[in-house]
Every structure is written in structure tokens, then in C-alpha cells.
Specification:
Two copies of one chain form a homodimer. Chain A is built from ten helices and 20 strands. By secondary structure, the first copy, chain A, is α+β, with helices and mostly antiparallel strands. Chain A has two domains: about 140 residues, Creatinase/prolidase N-terminal domain (Creatine Amidinohydrolase, Chain A, domain 1, 3-Layer(aba) Sandwich), CATH 3.40.350; about 230 residues, Creatinase/methionine aminopeptidase superfamily (Creatine Amidinohydrolase, Alpha-Beta Complex), CATH 3.90.230. In chain A, the strands form six sheets. A six-stranded mixed β-sheet of chain A has the order 4-3-2-1-5-6, sandwiched between helices. A four-stranded mixed β-sheet of chain A has the order 8-9-12-20, covered by helices on one side. The two termini of chain A are about 45 Å apart. Chains A and B meet through helix 3, helix 5 and helix 8 of A and helix 3, helix 5 and helix 8 of B.
């Protein structure tokens, strides 16, 4: 990955915003993959980007950082007693930020913490805003570059291999329980040189598929028994995750179950037919809402979301009135209509979509498997 | 679990704080297990607690909530278009909160979001503070009740069974790779009727144990080869997680590796000897720092932390000057000294400790396994 090019893009943005310093933070309480995207460092850290185009990484684990991170300077977080505010003070001194210089801290900084920053660092202009660095990085990340699209082509092939293997092994009775299926994915992913799964696999047999996200995610219960079973998973390759959902339908099915399956297939096709450069994400999601409404049913979650270093990132395909995301070439996102009923169970059909200058493409081959 | 009793405790606290309404939120961006602790609901949701002692849950997944949640009222989040601010407005109306009533929103609310709340809800006194409801719940959760201690006794027995099985199967060569070991735990946990693992298992063979938290967490690489290998895992029973770390040491070891192993054992014993009612967590952590310093080495992470519904919760055994946590009966926490070197590799020894009126007890039997 060309991390320096990514950092360069942010420096350019900082110039137009007249920022002296930008601070980003990735920690357990508030995960932020921006640091991973900008430097390649995969763990807890603070990152400081200065107006003289230098990047200072302050990682929790210096040994991991030395292996992975592309940056100009590196100091272990322990040297600042793991305290973000005093780390920021040191960084500002290190970069000789002029008095009253504009320093942007993470947009997710809690209000009580923000007050502390302002109180303890009175010499600088501390900025915390929604439409700041994080949001700029989100916009940049939304459009995948050639390297990332290449990764997704490989990743999709690997995901499809696993989809096929799961179908085969569920059908031939090798994979019997939710745990069998989930563990099979963990193993297969690593055999294919993937880093693992992108999120906890959700394997919900017919008794538990009524939940959007089954709880617990998978159990020793049978998978793919009579009725509807849901399998939602993603695998990770070079940091990037796929995200697909298969539904296993074992007959005899009820009339409602058949209706649900028909509707989610139709919804997927309808949504995909509207994928093009400039399309409003809201409009696509609303068209699916309308389709479901005709059958007096509704979907309790969004229609889809961008994927990348995170399982959920921009753009978001939601029908909320304030959703202003528009599709553009380079975006990779899911379409995942789903319907759920406390007694009939649930079903979801999810694939990963790539939009390029040449049009839309379904990368993954998830399916509704009839048994 | 007696969820109503927990809610009652919070209502009592709300009274002394003169709060009309408390809002809590658990979502992907900011996980908060307070809602799980207060109601048993295991997924994304908003929870409103009113001064007339009623709890309104607004879950993302109504089907899951109906199965798990103890509360007075329930409305699907989709009815408010998944928008927290308009949900809060509706809740305030529903509970007939008087004008200028004090409404506390989550302490982790980002500063830019806080401004929106205040802007869009001018009729109420919106409070967002560090020492508020979340922190009160944290204090309450820190002291485990009889039911929770019982769960931990069972959970520790199950964890110990898995520890023994891992030792046996690594020693006899059945578990060869990091993935073998990690997957073995996933399977065994579910066989023992556990919900799964409490966090991603970290299995780092000798080539990768230099990292505090190996990245990726586990791979197809060999485990327990010559040198030091680390295995950090926890299993979940009735929502509660254990957290243990084993080190596998296969000789011949270098002098430094032997020194590391000796030091972490000694550090564990030293720390445990200081565990008693009223002990300052900072002092315990600092005593280990001092021990390591004598050997001119330092530990890049905290000495331990509370466990419960989360893998990391209060109290925190850290040596930072601002750490004011004190030990008290009912606390369950880890002690986990670890040392790491880019070439020699790393080792960590972690067990779960219970402090009762009768003194301290090591619940788990993690070990340094010599091969």
C-alpha cells in the first residue's frame, strides 16, 4: 500500500483547512481504522500529522509498529504513561506548533474529555468537529484505489471458494451445527492465507434466525434444519474484509417463508439495478422499503454499507431522510435485504458490489441454498 | 439475574442526582454493556430510565429484545428511524418530563453530537459528564453479587478444564498451529455450554510472541516451537468472561528468556501477595514496575483489570499517578505480568483473582508450560 500517498492527501487537506496538527486515536473504547489506513499500523495508537508533513506515531505496542507502520517518527505510548492529553502536549512541542495554532482532535472525543483538552491545553486552538479529519479520511477511503480493487478481486474469489465449500459441506451433512459452520470458515480462511474473519460469524439455525444478528453468534445448535437458517460472514485479506450472507432454506417451507425468500431476491435485484454513478443511496434503500411495504412487511436494518478495512464504512445505503451519500466509481459496498419474523424465522441475502467507470459488478456469489 | 434490583439501584442514585431521565446507548461505534447489565438485552439499543422508575428499551432487534430484556416498555428503534436524538425527544414526551428537567445522555457522547442534542432539545437540561450514570454503573458492576460470583466459580472450572486440555494436546502434538489452538478453544467452549470466547484468542508462536497482542491474532504458523509462545484467551458463560494467558516455553531457552519467565512468575506472586481489601491498585502495579526496573526491563501494559460482562472493566491495576482504584470484596480481576522483546519473544502469565471478605483467591489455573 502507498501509505505516504495517503498521508500526502491528508496534508493537502490540512493546508486548505489551515490546521497545524491533526491527532487521531485508535483504542479499545473507540476503534478508528484511520491509523491503519494511513500508516499500516494495526493496533492501538495515537497518530499526529503536522503541517510540515511529518507523521508521528505513538503506538501501544512498539514492536508491532516497527514491523508494520509507515511514519516519520515513533515513540512508545508508555513513555507518556498512556495519557492522550500529555501525549498531545508533547507532540505539539515536538512539532513546534505556534501559539494559537489550530489542532484538531478526534471527532469522537467525548464532550467531558473535550473540556479537559481545552482546559489543559489553553495555548492552542483545539478543534473537534464532525466534518473534520476523520470525515475527510472516510471520504477518501470510500473510493478504493487500484491496489484495493485488486485485493477485493482476490478476496472475492477466496470468499466464493468458501461459499461453495460451505454449500457442499452443509448439503452432504459434514457441517451439522452452527459451530461446525463458523469454525469451518475460520479454518478455511487461514488455509487460503487470509488473516481471519472480518467480524464474528453469525450462524443462526432455523430456531434462531428470527434475530437480525443472532445471539449468541453461533452455538452447538443444528444448522440448516427445516425452515430458514442464516449465515453471515466475511474473511479478511490484506486487512480488507468481505461481507456476505447466505440463507439455507430446508423445506417444506410455509407460505410466509416462501414469500420472504421471494421478496429478498427481488429486493436485491431491484437495488442492484439502481446501482450507478451518482445514484443516491437513500433512493435505492427507499425503493426496497416500498417493495416490502406492498407486502405489508418491513426491514429492520439498513439495505447495505461500504466495506473496506472495516466491516461497516461509508457509503451507507439507508433510507433515512438525512442520508446524503451518493454512489461513485471505486466504491465497494454490500446489498443485503433481510426479513425476520419471530415464528417463521429470518432470511438475508447479501453480496458485495463494485462500482467502476464501466458499471456495477457483483463480486461475491452468495446464494439462497434450497435443501 | 435480578435485573430489576439493578435498575432499582440506579433509580435510587438518580434520585440523589435529581435526574428526570437517564439515556444509555449501546451501538457498534460505542459499545456499552451497561444495558446488558441492567436489562439482559444483549444487542444494540437505547435505554431510558425515568425518575418514576420505569425503563423503556429501544432495541435495534425487537425479536431478540423480547426474548432477553427485562424492562417496562419496548419500542423498536426503527420506529424512530434509528435516530437517537428524536428517540430521546419521544422518550421525554412519553415520560412527561417537565420542562427544564435534567436529562443525562451517555458520557461518551462526542462533543459535536453533544452540541446537536443541546441545539435540538432546548427545553431540557441536557447533561453529559464523566462522573454520571455510566460511571455509577461501572462502580456498581465492579462489586460482583452472589449470583455473579457463582457464575465465576463455574466459569473458572470450565476455563481450567480447557487450560488442562490445551496443555495436554499441545504436549502430545495434537495442536500444532496457532489456528489449531484457537479453534480448539472455540469448539471446547461451546461443548461446555459456554456462549463462546470473550475476545479474539491471541495465539502467538515463538516467532510472533514479541507483540503484546499478536497481529494477526492467530495464523497458520506453528505454535509452541522453540522459544516462548503466548496464548491469551477467555470463555463466556452467562455473559461473563474469563481471561487467562498461558506461556509455552520450549527449550533450549536463552538466558534472557529464562530471566523473563522467572520475572513474570515472581511479579505475579508479588502482586497477588498485595491483594487485600483497601489495597490501592496503583501501589500493586508500581511494586511490579519496581521489580522489573531492578532487572532494567519494563512492562509495556497494565498489570491487570476487572473482568465481567466485558473483558476489560474497572478496577484497573495500572501504575499511572491518577489511578485511584482500590480493591474491595466482590471484585474479580486479572493479574497479568508480561515481558516482550523483539528478538527473544515474549511471555505473559495471567490468572483471574477473586477478593472476598475471606481474602484473595486465584480462580484460574493458567500456567507456564515447559516443553
Amino acid at each position: 500500500m502507498d501509505y505516504l500517498k495517503r498521508q500526502e492527501k491528508l496534508y493537502t487537506w490540512m493546508e486548505t483547512e489551515e490546521l497545524s496538527l491533526v491527532m487521531l486515536q485508535d483504542n479499545e473504547e473507540r476503534r478508528d481504522t484511520s491509523i491503519l489506513w494511513l500508516t499500516g499500523h494495526p493496533g492501538d495508537a495515537l497518530l499526529f500529522l503536522s503541517s510540515d508533513k511529518k507523521a508521528l506515531l505513538v503506538p501501544w505496542d512498539i514492536n508491532i509498529a516497527k514491523l508494520y507502520a509507515a511514519c516519520d517518527f515513533m515513540v512508545p505510548f508508555a513513555e507518556y504513561a498512556l495519557d492522550p492529553i500529555s501525549t498531545l502536549v508533547s507532540a505539539a512541542r515536538y512539532f513546534k506548533i505556534p501559539m494559537s495554532g489550530k489542532i484538531e482532535i478526534p471527532s469522537c472525543t467525548p464532550y467531558p474529555d473535550f473540556l479537559q483538552y481545552v482546559d489543559k491545553i489553553p495555548d492552542y486552538d483545539i478543534i473537534c468537529r464532525k466534518d473534520g479529519a476523520k470525515s475527510e479520511i472516510e471520504r477518501l477511503r470510500m473510493i478504493k484505489d487500484e491496489d484495493e480493487i485488486h485485493i477485493y478481486r482476490v478476496l472475492s474469489t477466496l470468499t466464493n471458494q468458501i461459499i461453495d465449500a460451505i454449500e457442499q459441506n452443509v448439503c452432504n451433512g459434514q457441517l451439522k451445527t452452527e459451530t461446525d459452520v463458523a469454525i469451518f470458515i475460520e479454518y478455511e480462511a487461514r488455509k487460503l492465507n487470509c488473516e481471519g474473519t472480518g467480524f464474528t460469524t453469525l450462524a443462526a439455525g432455523a430456531e434462531r434466525s428470527f434475530g437480525i444478528h443472532a445471539f449468541p453468534p453461533y452455538t452447538a445448535a443444528p444448522f440448516a434444519g427445516q425452515g430458514l437458517s442464516i449465515l453471515d460472514f466475511g474473511i479478511v485479506f490484506h486487512g480488507y474484509t468481505s461481507d456476505v450472507t447466505m440463507t439455507f432454506a430446508r423445506g417444506p417451507l410455509s407460505k410466509s417463508q416462501e414469500t420472504f425468500l421471494g421478496l429478498i431476491s427481488k429486493a436485491f435485484d431491484l437495488a442492484f439495478s439502481k446501482v450507478k454513478d451518482g445514484a443516491m443511496c437513500r433512493t435505492i434503500a427507499q425503493s426496497v422499503d416500498t417493495l416490502f411495504k406492498k407486502s405489508k412487511i418491513s426491514m429492520p436494518h439498513g439495505l447495505g454499507h461500504g466495506i473496506g478495512l472495516q466491516a461497516h464504512e461509508a457509503p451507507f445505503l439507508r433510507s433515512r431522510a438525512d442520508n446524503e451519500w451518493k454512489l461513485a466509481p471505486g466504491m465497494i459496498f454490500t446489498i443485503e435485504p433481510g426479513l425476520y419474523h419471530p415464528f417463521e424465522g429470518g432470511c438475508r441475502f447479501e453480496n458485495d458490489i463494485l462500482l467502476t467507470e464501466n458499471g456495477a459488478e457483483i463480486l461475491t456469489r452468495s446464494k439462497i441454498v434450497r435443501l
